[in-house]
Amino acid sequence: MNTLPPATTITCPQCQNRIHAKVEQLMDVASDPSVKQRLLSRNFNIIECPLCSFHGMASVPLIYHDPAKETLLTFTPPELNLTLDQKESMLGGLTRTLLGNIPTQERKAYLLQPQEMLSMDGLINAVLAGEGVTPEMIEKQRAQTQLIQDLATTSKTNLPDLIKENDEQIDAQFFHILDAIKQQYAGQTDSPITQELQHLEQHLLSHSTFGRETSSRLQAFQTAATELESLGENLTRETFVELVADAKDPHHITSLITLARPAADYEFFILLTAKIEDSDTQERQRLEATRSLVLETVQKIDAAAEEQSKIAINLLDKLLHMEDIEAAIKENLSEIDETFLMVLQQRIDSESRNKNPKLTNQLEELQRNIMQAIHDSAPPEIQFINELLSTKTDEDAATLIKQRLPEITDKTLAAIHRAIEQFRQRGQTDVANKLESLHTLAEKERTDANIT
After folding, report:
1. Strands of the sheet with 115-117, listed across from one edge
2. Residue 99 and residue 115: Cα distance in Å, rounded?
3. What is the share, in percent, of the chain residues with pLDDT greater than 90?
4. How many angstroms separate the CA atoms of 224 and 256, rounded?
5. pTM
6. Residues 6+ apart with CB under 8 A from 195
7. What does the alpha-carbon distance between residue 35 and residue 43 come to, in Å, rounded to a whole number?
8. Beta-carbon count within 10 A of 327 CB
9. How far is the C-alpha of 335 from the C-alpha of 355, rounded, in Å?
10. How far is 114 from 123, CA to CA, in rounded Å?
11. 78: exposed, middle or buried (C-beta count within 10 Å: 0-12, 13-18, 19+)?
12. CB 338, CB 351: distance < 8 Å
């Protein structure tokens, strides 16, 4: 990935004055897998003009490279009015930098034939096409993005009606786009745009069909997590059967099973069946429907887990046979998830029990490289959260906060808040509570130090 030096000046798209900026021009997926998502979400080369307060994307020539897709794309913003010689000179320099980072034996013919994109939309659409995204899907995303803009600028009085009028367009993808837009302003907690987006999201959750369904699922999940946590050591198959049998809402039932899948075993179904047989006719019908839903949920969870395990096993075998393991990890980092890490640990334990020290060492080295790559690829605020969670005591965490206080910005606090919500949604209440107390401490330390 190539960035212009800090002293470089560019033209502000709004006031046309020259300003200092640091921007990416060479977006190489092989060097930094996160560039693809930043490009697709348009969350890159965002500049702030100190003269006119412009906040938006810088106009600079770009090269996008994805070796896995054998894709090399170039884009020169037309508003730069560069001559052909100037454009070739700038893009040529970037191309030479890219080729210099690729071993000679890995260079392929596509690198000699870059595709020129005429617009930023064209560049993004070309990347999406490589991911299997159709023009119809792109058009749907464009329409949903426009709808978000329309909703965000609608008065509070008219907003519920406009949401209902466009109810069919408001789905999971719609909320993903809204979340991506929110991420662009994550560090600007006092920004009117941030507040407008939060206000819009609350209305969407209340007035759209998908939003209400999402809210219902989230509430059910949080309720289930609280119930299971309150039982603690008293959680047995008998108490779990009672929890499931008492649940009336389908989302509540599926949440309980999702959070405590191991408890829904053969003995669980025997106990639940016995409870059904002891019930009167009306209650029996309800509990039979509950049993069917539990069985269906268990089957879905197990099928998904089996498929994820197969994918993880194949990826692990692939990585073990790669010569350049660090490059292979970077290229496949987006595919490495909790399931993969669990499969890797199980493989390490298995080879260790089988007294295979050579393969055990190879797997442990792979594990270390992966954890380092995950840490290095994460944004600074996520790295800080991981470091906080890895501290052994509250005192150690408090010391870390004091030592790193200058790094704790509004963006960091916003990231911590999002992490708290994610942990709660996943039922990891203890982690969420710990992080919440550290969030409060970080805010207090910033206030005491008079940092704004």
Report:
1. 2-3, 24-28, 62-66, 71-75, 115-117
2. 16
3. 27
4. 5
5. 0.58
6. none
7. 9
8. 15
9. 29
10. 12
11. exposed
12. no
User: 148, exposed or middle or buried, with CB in 10 Å at 0-12, 13-18, 19+?
Assistant: buried
According to DSSP, residue 393 is labeled: S
Residue located via tokens 């197969």: 310
In the chain, % of residues over pLDDT 70: 95
Owner of token pair 């993903």: 176
Strand 9-11 to strand 18-20: parallel, antiparallel, or no bridges (unpaired)? antiparallel
Token digits for 422?
Answer: 């994610």
Beta bridge partners of 52: none
List all residues 6 or more positions away from 276 whose beta carbon is below 8 Å from its beta carbon: 284, 287, 288, 291
- What is the rounded CA–CA span in Å between residue 69 and residue 248? 49
Quick: pLDDT tens for 280-296.
888 999 999 999 999 99
**Using CA atoms, how far apart are residues 247 and 294, in angstroms rounded to an integer?**
11
Alpha carbon 301 to chain centroid, angstroms = 21
**CB 411: neighbour CB atoms within 10 A?**
16
CA–CA gap between residue 244 and residue 257 (Å, rounded): 8
Helix 250-259 / helix 281-320 crossing angle, nearest 10 deg: 40
Domain-by-domain residue ranges, the chain? Answer: 2-133, 136-207, 213-307, 322-376, 378-448
Q: pLDDT digit string (tens) for 127-171? A: 888 777 777 877 888 899 899 989 988 888 999 999 999 999 999
Amino acid at 157: T
Q: Give the type of residue at 404.
A: R
Beta bridge partners of 115: 73
Q: 65 in helix, strand or coil? A: strand
